[in-house]
């Protein structure tokens, strides 16, 4: 994970240089994340469990909290977005190692 943290740090610095202004707004106008969050939660409750769907659910939860001005909750959800992303990296590494073993 240390190498991944270093990669993330490098990407953040690169992004800051490339795009000093991060964004104009956090959400597009007239888009409600509450509906999207409910739909993806329903899908994620029954499986199959897909990394992309889990990540999307966490993003929707964060944006719904932001939309409702629940800023502390939004930050907590964004931490969960990061946690899911790290688990996705672990899964990719696991799959990569398995594929390398099959080639041997």
Question: How would you summarize this macromolecular structure in one to three sentences?
Answer:
With 104 residues, the protein is an all-alpha fold. The protein has helices at residues 2-18, 33-44, 51-67, 71-103.
Overall description:
The model has no long low-confidence stretch (mean pLDDT 87). The chain is an all-alpha fold. Helices cover 76% and strands 0% of the residues.
Residue stretches low in confidence (pLDDT < 50, at least 5 long) are none
Radius of gyration: 17 Å
Distance between the termini: 25 Å
Order of helices and strands: HHHH
How much helix is in the residues? over 70%
The overall average pLDDT, rounded, is: 87
Number of strands: 0
Taken as a percent bin, the fraction of beta residues is under 5%
Choose one word for the global shape: flat
List the helices and strands and how they pair.
Layout: H1 2-18, H2 33-44, H3 51-67, H4 71-103
Helix pairs in contact: 2-3, 3-4
Notable characteristics:
flat, single chain, 4 helices, 104 residues, mainly alpha
């Amino acid at each position: 994970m240390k190498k991944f943290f270093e990669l993330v740090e490098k990407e953040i610095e690169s992004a800051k240089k490339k795009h000093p202004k991060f964004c104009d707004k956090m959400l597009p106008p007239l888009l409600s994340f509450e509906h999207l969050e409910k739909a993806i939660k329903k899908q994620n409750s029954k499986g199959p469990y897909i990394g992309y769907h889990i990540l999307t659910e966490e993003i929707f939860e964060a944006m719904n909290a932001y939309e409702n001005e629940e800023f502390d909750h939004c930050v907590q959800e964004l931490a969960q977005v990061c946690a899911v992303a790290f688990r996705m990296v672990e899964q990719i590494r696991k799959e990569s190692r398995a594929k390398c073993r099959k080639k041997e």
